[in-house]
Amino acid sequence: MKLPLYQVDAFTDKIFGGNPACVVPLKEWLPDPILLKIAQENAVAETAFFIDQGDKVHLRWFTPEVEMDLCGHASLAASHAIKQILKHQGNKIIFETLSGDLEVFVNDGLYTLNFPSRMPLAQKLPELLANSLNIIPKKVLKARDFVLVFNSEDDVKNIEINRLYFDQLAGSAHCSLIPYWSNRLGKKDLIAKQISERGGTLICKDAGERVLISGKARTFSIGELWTE
Fold first, then answer.
1. Which residue ranges form the domains of the chain, and what is each CATH number?
2. pLDDT of 100-156, one tens digit each?
3. 59: which strand partners?
4. Which of 113, 136, 168, 188 could form a disulfide with 19 if both were Cys (CB 3.0 to 4.6 A apart)?
């Protein structure tokens, strides 16, 4: 079986920036073990698989280890592939996902993801996470994802991490980062900057029970994959 395969750099306006994701359109669902094998072979943080159902697009996300309930950068990558490569008409895409229906609005190359808000709560730092950091955070919180608060920007810049446990840029983590920092700063509109080697920019808004996460994307490659 021959399938399209797109690799997209998400939350960036340049190639080799942001977070790369693979996107695979399907006509029908393959067995989950095959989807996982494809994600492992792609060897990026997440691979997005989708089926266009007309009014909605059924979207699923796989890491090389598990299926995820929510993924920001791979949702943006899928939106970019649907709009720019597959020439979707209109400026709105509705994804049917494990986290419910997720709307994406497209305006002049900017993709706005409408995601659930997940306020993080105080949590103890797990030993595994502590052992992967050279600087211990000032505060530890958690919803689905951990939120680590440090004393200064310099601390964040100087963190040395075990890369095995960290993504390049986790868009869905902003489901927790946005409400936390909105509450701390008394601001609804925020801009998040990823200061990793690849960088990345997310334009964010606290909308109560929802968060709006906007960013750009660039197509890195268009190809095909084969399955037996």
1. 2-105+216-226 (3.10.310.10), 121-212 (3.10.310.10)
2. 999 999 999 999 999 999 999 999 999 988 888 899 899 999 998 889 999 998 998
3. 50
4. 168
> Taking the mean position of all CA atoms in its chain, how far away is CA 214?
11
Q: What is the CA radius of gyration of the chain?
A: 17
Starting at the edge strand that comes first in sequence, how are the strands of the sheet with 121-122 ordered?
A: 121-122, 139-142, 146-149
- As a whole number of angstroms, the distance between CA 169 and CA 221 comes to 19
Distance CA 50, CA 30 (A): 11
- Pair of tokens at residue 209: 């029970």
**Dihedral of the alpha carbons of 73, 75, 79, 82, in degrees to the nearest 10:** 120
The pair of structure tokens assigned to 125 is 């730092």
Burial 69-80 (b: 16+ CB within 10 A, else e): ebbbbbbbbbbb
CA distances from 206 to 6, 45, 188 (A): 31, 26, 5
CA distances from 153 to 140, 159, 168, 194 (A): 16, 10, 18, 12
> What spatial distance separates the first Cα and last Cα of the chain, rounded to whole Å?
6
Q: Which two tokens stand for residue 60?
A: 């699923």
Question: Residue 89: left if φ>0, alpha if ψ -120 to 50, beta else—which one?
Answer: beta
Task: Count CB neighbours of 196 within 10 A.
Answer: 14
Active site residues: 46
